[in-house]
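Q: Sequence in, structure out?
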Amino acid sequence: MSQSNNTTPYITLTFSLPEDFSPPSDGEGETYISVQTANTSIPLNVVQFREPILRSGRWNFSFAHNYSDVSVKYLVTINMTHNGVPLLIDLDYVVIVHRAPHRQTLHLSPIGRLYIQAQAPRAVEPEHAVTLAAHEHDDTQALVTQIHVSEKMAEAFYLEYDPATVVPGKRYTLTATENEYQNSIAVYPGSVVLKPFSMA
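A: Exactly. Output:
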């Protein structure tokens, strides 16, 4: 990778939370964002940003893209804590930039609501549903939650679950099955820690 000598273009990320998500307004809050390169032999720290406030809705975050001759894969992490307690599921977001300026929306997952992306659905009749389940990593019968959604709806949505039913720090697996023919559907994330350990 070579650094560009011209005017530095920027990457703009739009962080998006569910419309009804409202963080606590009392106590101490913090939002932390980290960006690293993910396709270099040694990950390079691009930016680390910390602010003593909590966010809701949608907001933009920009950082410089210093490379002009190669595609760059960035690894983005974002955490929000209230009195040291995590408010978001700890996920890594991959942003691939071929050229800048570049804009991309990242959907964040508050604890209790996991943003799911499935493979692009084909056109199906409304009654043909997809079953999506979250279960213990080594036991598909130990369900945390299970829902049925139309295949058209399965492309991207929030999966709700009760945080009190999951173990902090334990990894759970997500599976999706098309009901008519029992075909598996790719889903992201495939596995996730639904409740981080508290730092408080």
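The radius of gyration is 19 Å.
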